[in-house]
Amino acid sequence: MKNKITCFIPGTDQGSLASTVSSLKASGVVGKVYVVVPEGQTSDIGDIEGDYITAPGFSSTAAIKKMAELAEDEFTITYSKNFPLEPGQVALSRMMKV
Fold first, then answer.
1. pLDDT value at residue 7
2. How many beta carbons lie within 10 A of that of residue 55, not counting itself?
3. How many C-beta atoms lie closer than 10 Å to residue 44's C-beta?
4. pLDDT tens digits for range 51-96
5. In this structure, what are the phi and psi dihedrals at residue 52, rounded to the nearest 5 degrees?
6. Which among 75, 78, 77, 54 is positioned nearest to 66, based on CA atoms?
7. CA distances from 30 to 1, 23, 38, 66 (A)
8. Is 13 in a helix, a strand, or coil?
9. Is 18 helix (H, G, I), strand (E, B) or coil?
10. 62: left (phi over 0), alpha (psi -120 to 50) or beta
11. Which of 66, 87, 73 is nearest to 22 (CA)?
12. Cα 16 to the chain's mean position, in Å?
């Protein structure tokens, strides 16, 4: 299946972030994963695979505008929790069908 989802997640601790990015990439349907980090803190995230957006906060107007500009795929996921996201097997594919 073609990559059809752009994901936006908050820059939390490295363990949660690494687990979430890994789970999303492993789904096979996620194109890009953007990590939204507070301004001036990108170096604190480590070398997690993904692209970064800097903004005052995950739900700030600036962050939402940047997300809207970058959401190029057919579907978009914003995950705002600070603990790892681990969707079940083919969960994202099933969500796309609905």
1. 93
2. 19
3. 11
4. 888 999 999 999 999 999 999 888 999 998 888 888 877 888 888 8
5. -120, 145
6. 54
7. 10, 10, 24, 18
8. coil
9. helix
10. alpha
11. 87
12. 12
18-57 pLDDT tens trace: 888 888 888 888 888 999 988 877 555 556 666 888 999 9
Alpha-carbon span 51 to 73, nearest angstrom:
15
Q: What is the pLDDT of residue 19?
A: 85
Residue 91's DSSP bridge partners are none
CA–CA separation, 37 and 44 (whole Å): 9
Answer whether residue 1 shows pLDDT above 80: no
pLDDT at site 64: 95
The residue assigned the tokens 């795929």 is 73
Structure tokens belonging to residue 46: 């480590």
Beta strands in 1-98 (DSSP E): 5-10, 30-38, 51-55, 75-78
